[in-house]
Specification:
Layout (H helix, E strand, L loop, with lengths): L1 H32 L1 E13 L2 E12 L2 H21 L7 E3 L3 E10 L5 E19 L2 H9 L2 H4 L5 E3 L3 E3 L3 H26 L4 E9 L3 E3 L19 E14 L1
Antiparallel strand pairs: 1-10, 2-5, 2-6, 2-7, 3-5, 4-5, 8-10, 9-10
Protein name: SIMPL domain-containing protein
Pfam families: SIMPL (PF04402)
Organism: Chryseobacterium shigense
Length: 244
Amino acid sequence: MNKNIIAVAVGALGFVLGLGFLGNAIKNRNKSENTISVTGLGTKQFTSDLITWSGSFSKNNSDLKAAYDELAIDRKVINDYLVSKGIKQTEIVFSSVDIQKQFRSYNDSNGNYVQGEFSGYNLTQKVSIESKEVVKIENLSRNITEIINRGIEFTSSAPSYFYTKLATVKQEMIARATKDAKERAEKIAENSGSSLGSLKKATMGVIQITEPNSNEDYSYGGTFNTSSKEKEANITIKLEYEVN
């Protein structure tokens, strides 16, 4: 008899607790659904204030010392030319010399590649410039044929453009994206007859820097265009608000 009473009591208590847990679950579910998630966008266009440019030159000779001497002559011509164009000596950097042995190679009667006898050395050196005088370096890179006309085997690369105040730009875009997201959330709440509550969560996207009005794709880890002097930066902010 006592056992039956105890069993009934335990069952009743379990039922009551179950109702309590169910009520809390429904309450919490409704509370979590009573939110607004919005995404704001911050953009800014700016002009690069730093440029890098590089080129390489080479010499071939069967004698290593002779190749070094010839490359040194070309290096001096290039250095003097750059200085004459107003480039600061401290901005001109010559890399170490890359040395490659060359061999006369051919395919035998069976079509197999055969490395033949040694034919000499190929020495290559790179010169690079980093400067805040963007226009000057741009013009230099476009008129580099003047070096080629002096008999130097010179290969020029396209300039790369950067911006040194990117941290400030990022702060401005975050502020704009946050303001944009909040205004969107307020409008949604207003249209639904509610009011915006406290901010529950904020998630920032990665910065995307592209050429303005281009069709460049955004990437998951962020895009950073260096080929264009003019740039456009974008960033998104996702905000989640409670709704009253």
